[in-house]
């Protein structure tokens, strides 16, 4: 009898320890992946009910009078809790995988849109070359026929046409030219002031076009989305090679109307879709660099620094 009572007490202690471990692991898991409140309630309800059941007076009375029955009941409750944890853990794992799959699909769509921009920029360059040849041929005919007065108004007309139709940024890097030119058009349309500082050696850029598309595309989209609805909004874009590093710095206006609602960690702010800056950081780290997020004096900035290993 005493042995059974001792075994029951030991079993209860082990069960409470298991339930406590499940709760601790659940809390730790929540740090890595935030799931819905319903999953939290479902996962906790059975352990809580189990503890309430085993601590109820009838069950404690059963432990004193019929220890063997209490032992079987406690073992059964323990088994139910273990199975409950395993099943819901698998459910949460599947939910996390579905969430990651959704992120990947949206990121692929983001990449597709950016590559379409690059493709459009490339077509614009070819169209620019074709149109330039026609313009030069016309100017050549004007010179041959000594119609000099026709050249100046025609040149002004074609300059206006070229500025409105083709990339206005020309650094020699197609990704940077396409994205910054597209940003220039969008900021003009939305009344946002844009400042650019593009001074880099295109031959020493330590980032391939894939990662450069992710980094620059996400940072520019992030800045543009943050400036929507801001009064006197402005964006600063700097792409430079400085002291053996390739640096991309994007800063934008971000005024917090209510200081009480200011985020605790600006590193986690994302104005795109919740994971754009994570992709930026991943690409920066893949290239041997890092990303720094900063907010001060109503200015939100993101800086990516990648070392140039073989300048």
Structure explained in plain terms:
By secondary structure, the chain is of the alpha+beta class. It has helices spanning about 1-30, 35-55, 55-65, 65-145, 150-165, 175-190, 210-225, 275-285, and strands spanning about 195-200, 235-240, 245-255, 290-295, 300-305. The protein has a five-stranded mixed beta sheet with strand order 1-2-3-5-4, with helices on one face. The longest helix is centred in the middle third of the chain and has 78 residues, at about 65-145. The radius of gyration is 32 Å and the shape is elongated. The model is unreliable at about 1-10 and about 30-35 (pLDDT under 50). It holds the Pfam family HATPase_c_5. It comes from Agathobacter rectalis (strain ATCC 33656 / DSM 3377 / JCM 17463 / KCTC 5835 / VPI 0990).
Summarize the structure.
The protein has helices spanning 2-32, 37-54, 57-65, 67-144, 151-165, 174-190, 209-227, 276-286, and strands spanning 193-199, 234-242, 245-253, 290-296, 299-307. The chain has 311 residues and is an alpha+beta fold. The protein has a five-stranded mixed sheet, with helices on one face.
């Amino acid at each position: 009898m005493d042995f059974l009572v001792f075994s029951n007490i030991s079993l209860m202690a082990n069960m409470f320890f298991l339930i406590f471990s499940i709760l601790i692991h659940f809390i730790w898991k929540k740090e890595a992946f935030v799931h819905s409140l319903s999953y939290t309630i479902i996962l906790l309800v059975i352990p809580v009910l189990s503890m309430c059941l085993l601590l109820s007076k009838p069950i404690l009375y059963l432990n004193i009078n019929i220890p063997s029955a209490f032992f079987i009941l406690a073992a059964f409750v323990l088994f139910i809790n273990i199975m409950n944890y395993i099943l819901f853990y698998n459910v949460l794992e599947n939910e996390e995988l579905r969430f990651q799959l959704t992120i990947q699909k949206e990121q692929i769509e983001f990449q597709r849109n950016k590559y379409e921009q690059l493709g459009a920029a490339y077509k614009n360059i070819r169209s620019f070359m074709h149109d330039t040849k026609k313009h030069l041929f016309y100017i050549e005919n004007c010179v041959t026929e000594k119609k000099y007065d026709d050249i100046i108004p025609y040149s002004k007309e074609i300059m206006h046409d070229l500025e409105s139709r083709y990339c206005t940024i020309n650094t020699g890097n197609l990704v940077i030219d396409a994205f910054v030119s597209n940003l220039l058009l969008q900021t003009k349309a939305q009344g946002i002031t844009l400042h650019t500082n593009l001074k880099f050696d295109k031959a020493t850029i330590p980032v391939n076009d894939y990662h450069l598309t992710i980094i620059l595309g996400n940072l520019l989209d992030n800045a543009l989305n943050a400036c929507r609805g801001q009064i006197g909004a402005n964006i600063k874009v700097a792409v430079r090679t400085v002291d053996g590093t390739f640096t991309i710095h994007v800063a934008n206006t971000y005024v917090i109307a209510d200081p009480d609602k200011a985020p605790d960690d600006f590193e986690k702010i994302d104005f795109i879709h919740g994971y754009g800056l994570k992709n930026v950081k991943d690409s920066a780290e893949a290239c041997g660099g890092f990303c720094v997020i900063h907010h001060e004096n109503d200015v939100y900035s993101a800086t990516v620094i990648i070392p140039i290993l073989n300048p």
